Amino acid sequence: MKKILYIMIILIIAAIYFTPNVLAAPAPKNMEAVWMATVFNIDFPSTKNDIAAQKNEYIEKLDKLKAIGINTVVFQVRPKADALYKSDINPWSDVLTGIQGKDPGYDPLAFMIEETHKRGLAFHAWLNPYRVTTSGTDLSTLSENHPARSHPDWLISFNNSLYYNPELQEVKNHIIATVEEIIRNYNVDAIHFDDYFYPSKYPLPQGEGRDGSVAKSRIQHINDMVQGVSAAIKSINNNVLFGISPMGIWKNKISDSTGSETSGSESFYTVYADTRTWIKNQWIDYVVPQIYWETGHKAADYETLVKWWSNEVQGTNVKLYIGHGIYKDVVVNEIDMQLRINQKYSVVNGSFYYGMKNLLTNAAGCIEKISVIKHSSPLESSRSNMAVKTGTTTASILNIRSGSGLQYAILTKVPKGTKVTILNSQPGWHNVKLTNGKTGWASADYVTVIDQPRKI
């Protein structure tokens, strides 16, 4: 009997440790993440009502992202109070089939988590907590099983769109239950909220000021929801992270002496999001301010905000990542400069990139720019005038890759005898600059280094 019991224990342990994709991928020390948006089918899926096409599309994009060096996928599982997963609470999303509430014939979230973890990447489930419609207020257009149809009293309307009312306890309970369902049923690494809370610039009652009692109560209602979600996550699985990506400005200095030296839209007053309180109370594990502006921007200078947010997380366990708006030409053109700035602040633990299409199409050579900075130390990346070596390629055709490893994408190919400038090196690889100005990584086995250094 003891022998049988011993064998059973061994089998159980083996099942736990050797069953693939059972355990979530650990949160990477340096987060390199991308947002994959599903609202309006922005990033996924490009084809509806086709299981094979949707699966192939996700795998293809996932492989490309890994080759680039992305280690975390932030996937939008709840774009409009709906679900890209099997739910007893929310209806199937229309982005899958074109019809809200229609079963797509498979479980996209289970599939995507498995494929993501199989490649050693983390999966963060991205939810928009309050949005019900992006356009229109006719409840009859929603699926019959949509909670908003059963509870029209939960809703507020603004700018021809519907939202769940953050003031109602029933709404708070619904959002918490939604998060709990995901964590209990799916092996996600994190729950992620974006920057939408109250509708942007939702009006106050006549006679009320932006620091008045109604405004303060709105701040408190959002705080209650965030605190409730945080407590629910930790009570179910303490290994699941909770992150929020707020607007890049909390308050301007003109509004609050402790705010940032900026003059842009403030999340505290625009959507009633008090990120400072979430950080101070450590209700969130990480924060990703959307600093979607360039260096030198008149209203919101990039480094001014990085410095401000770095100070906000000091002395807490909340990790800081920076959200980069690479969908903007002015930002993607200087992404290497922004990453160098990040390296100056030790509490910046990585970057999140939006939008994904710009990254995958290598807009403005952003893949090479990101690779060079991420594979260099802060000291190396800040020295544009440092002494470097030159080299000559020896392979008949040599692949220049986006990172220091065979798993990275091939950026270009160069013939034997090509002269390169070696910017820095890692075991087995050189970060090289070609004569046309492009940069990438070359196998050290096929580059003969010239000992005489020169300046660049």
Model description:
Helix 2 packs parallel to helix 4 and helix 6 runs parallel beside helix 7 (213-236). Helix content is 33%, strand content 21%. The chain contains 15 helices and 17 strands. It has two domains: 26-376, TIM Barrel (Alpha-Beta Barrel), CATH 3.20.20; 381-455, SH3 Domains (SH3 type barrels), CATH 2.30.30. Mean pLDDT is 90; it is low at 5-27 and 379-387. The chain starts with a helix and ends with a strand. It has helices at 2-18, 51-68, 94-97, 108-118, 147-150, 169-185, 213-236, 267-270, 275-280, 302-313, 329-332, 335-343, 356-360, 366-374, 378-382; strands at residues 31-36, 72-78, 122-127, 155-158, 161-164, 190-193, 241-244, 286-287, 319-325, 348-354, 387-393, 397-401, 410-415, 419-426, 429-433, 439-443, 447-455. Strands 1-2-3-6-7-8-9-10 form an eight-stranded parallel beta barrel, surrounded by four helices. It has a five-stranded antiparallel sheet with strand order 16-15-14-11-17, covered by helices on one side.
